[in-house]
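Chapter summary example.
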Amino acid sequence: MTPPRPPPGPAFATLCCLLALAAAAPTRAQLLPSPASVLPGSGLPLPELPERLLRGVGQTVEQLTPDKLAPEVLAAARLDRLRALVRAHPRALELDDQGQPVVRGEVLAVSPDAGALTRLQAAGFTVARQSQADALGLVLVTLTPPKGLSARAAVARAREIDPGGDYDFNHLYADAGGGTSAPAGDAASPAGGRQGRAGLLDGGVDSGQAAFSGVKVQQRGFAPGGARPSPHGTATASLLASGGVGEILAADVYGQGPTGGSAEAIVGALSWMAQARVPVVNISLVGPANGPLGAAVKALVARGCLIVAAVGNDGPAAPVLYPASYPGVIAVTGVDRRRRLLPEAGRAAHVDFAAYGAEVRVAAPGGRTVTARGTSYAAPVVTARLARLSDAADPASARRATARLAETAIDLGAPGPDPLYGHGLVEAGR
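The structure predicted for these 430 residues follows.
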């Protein structure tokens, strides 16, 4: 395949780093756009620049100068925000060895055998929770380490006790949304009627509004606080509905509280999707690689379920994010209405399709319709199309649906599949 084309220059790279901060912190706060501006000295427009990003570097748009946008300054600001999140919830969160927020004092183990559990308990670990994910062929055990042991030390100790086991942190995952702006017109109605089922791992959905008329929405909560309507979950679900999906199984992996969006909650939600035999699942969430999450994704993909995930908004220079980067997952990037790659779009380990991620009309709690931006809103377009092409969680059906979607995608960038746009642009109405 043709290698990625380099960015136009340092100003573009700086802009990408700036936009990357918009989605880095694992919170669900909505990003409010600032007025359209221009990066001083570059001539590059900054439409819908998130206010939170400006606060992260302690600047207003008027104060931004190239020296204040140096990569090391922005990198430090990103780390400061992650640390601030943990400082705000010191009893619930801590940082792993890569600086990623995790649930304090918890270690996740994938299907440990009886001997390993015995050795771990002898070393002072206790079993806090055990989830039997029969549909995935997994058992997820949440361990509490000995008193005074940090999560970093606890994971290292568990791996030392059972070198052949699968132990990891209980990482937190953030939504891959960007900003929302002023109310827009009515959301688009599905073309060709409603058909197909799709799963959704996100926040809760405010399903009692016009956008979900004629759609069966079934919700379950997998995090403390249970299923609770959220702006991001409602927005992504509304794109599935406008794409013609007739039934949505919505798993709220956030609930209420600082530990929402944990790997444990996501694995539980994936188990539900496997049990329900949903043919395609949308995950507009991003975070680091995680052993239990990777095992659950692999098991679900092997059963013929298509997993569609956003690549995130951390920019092209950021590390690849998951679950989009796992093998077998359909990774979706975002483009604007001129079919240009969003500068904040991540690159992932692979990209399969692109969809519009700017000026996207979505439903918001309270019956409003707003305009949104981010790769979160590109992924559901692809999910909805696949849901209408695959009626069962079956490996052969999944392959046919993916191949059919690739045939109808609009080629962008270099001829044929490429690392930036994958097979090309998927439009909701095609």
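To summarize the output: The longest strand covers residues 101-110.
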